[in-house]
């Protein structure tokens, strides 16, 4: 397996920002404050660990933390992928509230408005280090927010008698290691294959390799705990062990099921600070936890005030703790794949709302498909060898899903239409609506829209969520009675409303008829938003009325300098049904072979997404795509050598390679 190392290891908004940065309430500073350590791993579903019930795992250090500390069984990420999840941990704010932070990847503009957790901690007298991953999905400068952020950052460099906050990030369990072919330690014959996956050698290999990675991670945890012991700090330090999200077998990472969202969350409390836990030690807790709670909890443990803008709740602290009743999560764009899901759990049931039900779960993601397990699963699907449960991943999604997590731990029996589950269904649906409104969920904003973000989206008229949320909910209902209303809204002055009206029509495209298609064509000709035009183009191409849409798509794809528009156009062509798309193939080749190197980190990230989408589409249009075939990989060395590319490398811990890590 792996040798251990830490490397692997502004007008109205300004006033509102000042108000929300004010503390929620005064907290007295204690004379003796705890040191705080976060050990943050990539891609671990809680059930992979021995202390969570995996008999094949060998994780003695982590298990010991659980047996003497507090193990939380119902801890959840805000998103099932790393960068947006880490945004929530750094800011205490849901990435869904601050577009485009909810997308994988993006650069949300936050540094002019708020401070990051380590800045608050440093102002409160803590020495703060990060080692070394900084993929925060926003524009915070790691060298400014930490005392030290490097592969050698350590609490041992702090001034004498200074409390410390140290974060250690590890890539040992990252998805990329599932792609390896090194000999396995865990016997693949002994792993349990979940019912939604076919039983193939490649899938068993991924499941076993995932356990090997977790076992290796345990050694890194033991190393940090041993250093604390050597320094005589074990009884002075609160230690958190957690993962940024679940993973990493198919249908875990990136997906809004338990495998992608339920994370290990274990906390060591010294007896000196046990009173801050408000729970008995050496026991498991069934309290709900969200990773957005990490920042306010850390501030509270340090005796510092929590800014009002933080949306997380305090898990521990000197005052009594208000328990969570729900945890909210979601999925937006994943690399080159557009999607939008929102979900809530009460710990017993999970409700999921799919805002793009016309897209299948199994959209081809170039990084995911480097995994032999995904290749195997799709091969079995194309060969017709899957049962109904295993096939669901390759079919359009239901608008809503509801699962009883106690009776159905793999979430394969959707209760959304079950009469006996309607009370819980209605409760969780209403709670999700309320949460989206309260947090001003930015998820409906198309990426080509310039006005997005926490404060900008709250300006009058920019993002009328009270109108958008009911509109999007009607769009996914697949009710043909709504199509006239959707058509009328294509003339609305607000781009985001036009976008969701167009999606509603796309979902209903089989019932539109020639007259309405002609009306949509006229709207397309008058439309100025690339995102809206892309959706309208898909309707027109699918209806054989794409004579104007096809040239526009080709021209947009040929211009990767406007990468957000180019990606929207590529996705449209990928999912369009008709033969007209073949005429667009030369434009796809132009995008694929573009040599421009963006000067910004945003540009680098979006160009990677554009080229990934173009590579896949090129093989589909050529008729050469095979799940296990080789799609020619992009030579990204020039981009990584650029100043913006160097920023990306640093964010990934200095690892060269694909920015999807």
UniProtKB/TrEMBL annotation:
SUPFAM superfamilies reported in the protein's UniProt record: Alkaline phosphatase-like
Keyword check for Metal-binding: yes
Signal peptide: 1-28
Pfam families reported for this sequence: Sulfatase (PF00884)
Record domain Sulfatase N-terminal: where: 34-127, 158-303
Keyword Signal listed: yes
TM segment ranges: none
Coiled coil segments of this chain: none
Keywords: Calcium, Hydrolase, Metal-binding, Signal
UniProt superkingdom: Bacteria
GO terms for MF: arylsulfatase activity; metal ion binding
Similarity-based family: Belongs to the sulfatase family.
Name this protein carries in UniProt: Sulfatase
Taxonomic lineage: Bacteria, Pseudomonadati, Pseudomonadota, Alphaproteobacteria, Acetobacterales
